[in-house]
Amino acid sequence: MDFLADLEGHLREAAAALLAEGAISAKPKEIRVEQSREDGRGDFTSAIALASGNETGLERRLFAEAMAAKLRGNLDFAEIDVAGPGFLNLTIAPQAWGTMLATMLAEDRNYGRGQWGEGREADIGFLSVDEAVPLRSGHARGAVIGDALANMLDFRGFRASRSYRLNGGGVVTVRLEQSVRLDRGGNTSEANPSLAELKSAIGEDATRLGILMEQSSVPVTLDAALLTDLSHANPIFHMQYAHARCCAIRQKGDTALPGLTEPASWDPRAFADEGARLILRLLTLYPRKIDHAARRGEAHWLARYLYDLASVLHAQYYRSLTAPHLRFIRVDDRLLMGARLALVRGVEAVLKSGLALLGACAPDEIR
Question: What's the whole-model pTM score?
């Protein structure tokens, strides 16, 4: 499932209807929906009118207004606004969010999996930023990035080779800065430690995620004290604890009111809250974040996405502590609780899937 692709399908249908009615002379060649980057601008936005230029035969703002009028009859949208010279700002209806979440959970571990690669073989090629410095095949950073990218390519339908090319001649090319430094504290620092040395010092997950959180073309310093700290200051703990928190909430809900896993047990009012909608918007982006990272040979795009997803889950949890109406566990309102537990299960599933692609674990609990 790709929810954004479904929304783009609605836009294509609206454009086709306008063409059939003679309101436009041609359909736009490019139709793309993206997450809105400004508060108050809906859940998603499309620059369809700007991208089309004047190929539709209508001035861009008029084309956007015609599209909005056609889309307002679609039950997936709660609101559609036209902004600026022709942006469509799309607010998703709570019921449509529920349908999206139900489909996502039904796909389970296959959510985000795709056939982009169509079974083709894919090699990963590495190029050093400093061409005068030869890239060694056993380089710790290359091994971690290469493995993560290969996992993503496999997940999206390729057959990725784990014998990475060293001349950059792969389907995915990574421009790799060789500098990796391990900061042990107390003015003790090591340059270019081996993968085994890194794992011994800070653990496998901290090694992998610490490397993958950074863009491959910049030097990396792994702070041993930070990456082994059990607090939200540590981005690895932050992500893994979000998964453990989801597990704890789900288990508590299953104990308090079992049998809330079916969409019939969900009240879509739970999806109208801004914090919940922010989580839902991020969940829909998962398939495209994998593609974005794999196409560019930059695993940090997926790592940072997972960090953002963890952040909004934690934020919603802490909001619920001071706002009783937002609590995940609501034994006084079975349907509202069912919807919120579904939201938690969605975050749990994506964090587990995404961390696995990066080669890290998603613990059910952290003591």
Answer: 0.93
Tokens standing for 204?
């496998």
Using the CB atoms, write b or e for 154-171: b if 16+ within 10 Å. Answer: bbbebebbeebbbebebb
DSSP letter, residue 283: H
Give DSSP secondary structure letters for 245-266: HHHHHHHHHHHHS----SGGG-
Helices (H) and strands (E) in the chain, counts: 12, 11
User: Could you give the count of Cα atoms lying within 13 Å of 311 in the half-sphere of its Cβ?
Assistant: 11
**Alpha-carbon torsion (57, 60, 61, 64), positive or negative:** positive
Query: Which strand (E) or helix (H) includes residue 195?
Result: helix 195-202
d(Cα 362, Cα 356) in Å, to the nearest integer?
8
Helix, strand, coil shares of the chain, percent, nearest 5, are 50, 15, 35
Q: What was the pLDDT predicted at 131? A: 58
pLDDT band at 188 (very low <50, low <70, confident <90, very high): confident
Are residues 270 and 340 in contact, defined by beta-carbon separation less than 8 angstroms? yes
- Measured between its terminal Cα atoms, the distance across the chain in Å is 35
- Please tell me the distance from the alpha carbon of residue 85 to that of residue 88, in angstroms, as a whole number: 10
Q: In this predicted model, what pLDDT tens digit does every residue of 270-292 receive, in sequence order?
A: 999 999 999 999 999 999 999 99
Long-range (24+ apart) CB contacts under 8 A made by 310-315 are 310/238, 310/239, 310/241, 310/242, 310/243, 310/351, 311/238, 311/242, 312/275, 312/278, 312/279, 312/282, 313/242, 313/245, 313/246, 313/279, 313/344, 313/347, 314/232, 314/238, 314/241, 314/242, 314/245, 315/275
- E strand or H helix that includes residue 124: strand 124-128
Per-residue pLDDT at 167 exceeds 80: no
Q: What is the pLDDT of residues 145-160, one digit of tens each?
A: 999 999 999 999 999 9
How far is residue 175's CA from residue 39's CA, in Å, rounded to a whole number? 35
Q: How many other CB atoms are there within 10 angstroms of residue 256's CB atom? A: 14
Question: Quick one: pLDDT band at residue 303, thresholds 50, 70, 90?
Answer: very high
Q: Is the pLDDT of residue 125 over 90?
A: no
